[in-house]
Amino acid sequence: EVQLVESGGGLVQPGGSLRLSCAASGFTFSSYEMNWVRQAPGKGLEWVSYISSSGSTIYYADSVKGRFTISRDNAKNSLYLQMNSLRAEDTAVYYCARVSESSSSLDYWGQGTLVTVSS
Amino acid sequence: EIVLTQSPATLSLSPGERATLSCRASQSVSSYLAWYQQKPGQAPRLLIYDASNRATGIPARFSGSGSGTDFTLTISSLEPEDFAVYYCQQRSNWVFGQGTRLEIK
Description:
The complex is a heterodimer.
Chain A: E1 3-7, E2 10-12, E3 18-25, E4 34-39, E5 45-51, E6 58-60, E7 68-73, E8 78-83, E9 92-99, E10 106-109, E11 113-117
Chain B: E1 4-7, E2 10-13, E3 19-25, E4 33-38, E5 45-49, E6 53-54, E7 62-67, E8 70-75, E9 85-90, E10 100-104
Parallel strand pairs in B: 2-10
Antiparallel strand pairs in B: 1-3, 3-8, 4-5, 4-9, 5-6, 7-8, 9-10
């Protein structure tokens, strides 16, 4: 069974940092592209970042470029999101999601981890 | 940058009725469009991929159509569990539409 489990969320002050993790199981993690997607309270889904299966190709939304860093450790079946210079508008539930091997869609999602940026 | 615009923002229907949701892209995305369903407190769930293919386990009452810039998600006969928020997404820059809330009338 495919499972994605996020962790690392919490309360952080503006300007602070946080590192999110996503533990993957039930599939060959190293073969799949991955994404981070977030959802602010009461708002829609916002794509945050993409990483290829090898980690060689990375994309970011303009809203987080220069502040967030996506990475992966295929030996540990884990995806990460290092978030620096956090702002109030980064407050959201952060989901990791797997890119389908056969289509251009996100076929499995974690349950999400809440990040709250507030003083 | 490709922008996805969903309409309507809110759709009020009764169980048993047919729902038609629209997603329009600012430029062609070919057939690289997906639809997701999200219920309160839950992660999104993939419904349709590549514009018209149902994901594993998705009931046949859900169907997708379209290509290029205009796409439609149709729910042929609404069940109580279908009332949720629906998002479209395209692969080019991974962005989502703003969502359509399907509510009980």
